[in-house]
Here is the input.
Amino acid sequence: MTLNIIPKPNKVDFYGGEIPAAEQPVAYRTDETLGEEAYIIDIQKNGTVITAKGEKGRYYADITYMKLAEKGSLPLCKITDEPAFSYRGFMIDSARHIQTVEELKKYILAAAAFKMNVFHWHLCDDQGWRIECETYPELTKVGAYRDCHGFRSKDGREYGGYYTKDEIRDIIAFCEERHIEVIPEIDMPGHTTAIVASYPWLSCRGVKVPVQTDGGIFKDILCAGKEEVYEFCFKLLDEICELFPGKRIHIGGDEAPKARWCNCEKCQAKIKEEGLKDVEELQGYFTNRIADYLEKEKGMEVLAWNETLNSGIVKDSVIICDWMDRTGKSEEYANKGGKIIAEDFYHYYLDYPYGMTPLKKTYGFSPLLEKLDEKGKKNVLGVETPIWTEFVEDFDRMCYMCFPRLIACAESGWTQGENKDYKSFRERVKDYNEKLLSYGVKMADEEEWDPSLKRRTKDMLKRWKDMLDPRAISVFLFPNKDD
Ligand code: ACM
Ligand code: ZN
Here is the structure.
């Protein structure tokens, strides 16, 4: 027998028989020896006992218990449960397209139902800056708007906006009630066109550039040679850290083209001055300076995308988000003691169609990557599914793309090894449809989840034709070996 619960509890002992849920008394006990997120639910004829160390464990036990009780009767059993990983994240890109606060809350409710515990909020990129900011007001005056709506539909209308600090605090509080940590991402030194559009002197060339209206990788990134750029970043991060009370922050670091740095006197002078080898090491130096500031001055832990490892000099306290790493640098980093989070492009990027990333493939991904040794496996903090929104313009589309694939990631973050079972997962997912609808989240229909080879080929070709996005092209050129 399998309980109708996602993530699947790690241990269930059945006593046999059932009991009406409405009449069942529930008692709570504390056990200091349990993990923060662990819980035990013991359902016996004379009552249920829920045991946890504290609030978090009780919260997860309640989610499980309420779902079990939904059908009116409870199976007599003992559930002993605890997550495999401490980091079970979902990332939302609010830069390319913005979600309303109400939409974000719907999504958060849905993720919370599956015991996810980190909301990584991607709040700035080439196409927009989305945080109210007093220190640098041009970020919202200029950087929050672009001159057309949608990525391909250049109809001349301005698109943009940003979250006020009160709105952000509201989201943080909403998450906190659900034991979800909010990690803001300030992507740097690349993907910074919206920042450079607001303050052109931050780039190497110092020329005015527009906030981007299409997806891609753009050359006018922050200059790593100018001291004023570091001062700008520190002051900006002061304000961000004040707004976000958590102890972790993401500083991006992905897809930073070095063309401008190669031709910039100041970047080249910085390379010499610091005894660096090349522009790649300059990015390592940049990352380390920002990370040092956040760690030493703000007491923060720092996350960054896996490209920051390319320099070979990034400090080992940085938590690496491994999204696209063909050379195994993230695994090597974890084997040496660094912490990593698995968010593999081929399995967890929910902006790609079901034809390219079927549900089964997402479900089958193990964050315990191939080249990890025993020590390295212990350094995997967990999993995360990003939804990038270049081509996800509205909330209905976002729900279609993310549900149920996000749920597959949630189960992998909690349930590991032999306990994972795709067939049972598919059945259990269907049982959550009503709950998700009650939050305002409509999943993709079942026939979308695992498309036929014909449909997969069609999706792949359509996607490739529709958009000359380097990431889509790379899927085509470097198909996943297990696909
Ligand atoms: C990324 O997808 N550029 C992190
Ligand atoms: Zn420069």
